[in-house]
């Protein structure tokens, strides 16, 4: 299939949605025929800011050993965030498997945000994979993230005339905070170890609540608390980091980012008093030993730098240590990762008969049969019998929970040994928001002077929201010629958004009512449609795109 044909098919399908809405509003049974073998494996990254701002101007870079095998939806090498989505497609001529996966690194940067480096492993077990990526806004504090930006006046020689202390207080409802002390006479150096001159030192500090589930989304490394590579005194291996306290410290002098110092700076991190120390199985206390790990975007691998003893000061638990560089710091514990992936099969009677539903699968560390820290999560469009897998889980019990599109919990399962390599079957209770009648939709396109309809359309994502409300939610993945759902309530009005690579199409104010199959074409006597508002324009577009595609 040619690139022009792919573009034509998608364009006509999205236009068809708008045409049908203008003519008949036939959306009770929302069933979309889409069947494309152009891309056999795709990854869709849903990219957002912790402050809720648009990141469509973000800078994207794809690297790694298999970067040459990744394309955008148009088969090109230009990658961008469009409508909050970044589409990655594997060259259809490349055969991949769990034994021969593809590994790429996706770097995303944006103004006023901490950049992220996301390792993406594509095994082929999930033909259409979804991942959420959240960039941390460095100017917007929240109840779960304390942020401080301040200036420090330096002497004329570019060093502090006296010791400088900067403290970031805890966010609301948290006890976690951090303090840094910069010794007098410290010189500030860039990434090439050159001394930077200037008198206005900008200091930025971030302290997240380590007990928050949202930490997994912004955790440095891009894969949640489970990481493909962590450096310890014993070597480098996959594993899980369990943080009891964290802080990011960064400096800018004269517009230049500072990476290291001529003298070590002192750091104090106030810990979460509810942190369960895996070494003792109890809440952290004075005298416990915790590892100090660091992570830098210039070298995106967590590294254990030292060990620190927990101290009690003023009724708070703290760790104190020194470092000669600026970066993320974490005080906590490391658990080695499994050699095998944990494979999961989701079963649900209410997802039979071709019905799908967006499901979030979350994996937690387990403490006394209770879920503790959210380690990692995946979002899938599930049907009865859907399978997925998680790699790098800790060699320790975990708890797996599933949630529907509105975050209602559907199941909770304890897995004592996630490393056993077997298939874990999880039965999901019926979603309370998916009790509507089955709704489906099927659309076709027929080129003028062609007897056969075009019914091969690219796979893409379809989102929805009740008309007049804010915030789109995933309805499902349009794939293999079919999608059906019980999330839509016949008689209500909805707004829909289709996302395919860099193409985003909105169709608004749609009343869901009747089952529908429709064909976009130039024969109204046969029931084909072109739309009532700009029918002539649509016909000309249809003719031109068919000609370009050789149809």
How would you characterize the overall build of this protein?
- The chain has 551 residues and is mostly beta strands.
- It contains 3 helices and 38 strands.
- A hairpin with a 4-residue loop joins strand 17 (276-277) and strand 18.
- The protein is globular and about 85 Å long.
- The termini are close together.
Give a quick summary of the entry.
The protein has 4 domains: about 100 residues, Carboxypeptidase-like, regulatory domain (Immunoglobulin-like), CATH 2.60.40; about 190 residues, Chondroitinase Ac, Chain A, domain 3; about 100 residues, Carboxypeptidase-like, regulatory domain (Immunoglobulin-like); about 110 residues, no CATH class. Helix content is about 5%, strand content about 45%.
Helix percentage range:
under 10%
Shape: globular
CATH topology description of the largest domain:
Chondroitinase Ac, Chain A, domain 3
Cα separation of the termini: 12 Å
Number of domains: 4
CATH architecture of the largest domain: Sandwich
Q: CATH class of the largest domain, please?
A: Mainly Beta
Biggest beta sheet attributes: 6 strands, antiparallel
Number of helices: 3
Rounded radius of gyration (Å) = 26 Å
Q: Structural class, please?
A: mainly beta
Q: Strand content of the residues, in percent?
A: over 45%
Query: How many strands?
Result: 38
Poorly predicted ranges (pLDDT <50, ≥5 residues)? 1-10, 17-37
